[in-house]
Protein: Flavodoxin
Organism: Loigolactobacillus bifermentans DSM 20003
Amino acid sequence: MIQMTLAKIVYASMTGNTEGISEILEEKLKAAGLDVERIEADDADSDVFEDADIAIVATYTYGVGEVPDEFEDFHNDLSSETLSGKIYGVVGSGDQEMHAATFCKAADLFEAAFEATGAKKGSATVKIDQDAEADDVARLQTFVDELAKA
Ligand SMILES: Cc1cc2nc3c(=O)[nH]c(=O)nc-3n(C[C@H](O)[C@H](O)[C@H](O)COP(=O)(O)O)c2cc1C
């Protein structure tokens, strides 16, 4: 049997924007021929990416530039995991108008955590204002294409 590349998306979403983004990612990764598992932050331990080839986090930002509560433990523990040999990517949703100074800061915090794991960044972090519009969907396509060939 041919071993397929497994991509795992862990996401947190309070009002649905990031969930929608995670669904778009799932669809596009599948279209690229990958196996995909999409998991809510509440259901994920920090070792969730152990059996994945591609590790993706999709997060909104809460408080003043903070990781959402339901992602806090996961985020803290992620940096202690060893994910060398794996590819990672991060997508953020935030509010560019109301929170310009901390726009999608949680995505940057996840990028830093992934860097500590030894995983390789497969594509630049995508930051989306609220929900994904057509231009964002195009950026997500590029993100997926780059991860798939990284
Ligand atoms: C209390 C509160 C604090 C927020 N703080 C930030 C922030 O610091 N930076 C940011 O980019 N967005 C911030 N946001 C906006 C959300 O991240 C944004 O609406 C996001 O699209 C929500 O995603 P979701 O629909 O997946 O829950 C905040 C929203 C709330 C309600």
Remarks:
- The beta strands are 6-11, 35-40, 54-60, 87-94, 120-121, 126-129.
- The radius of gyration is 14 Å.
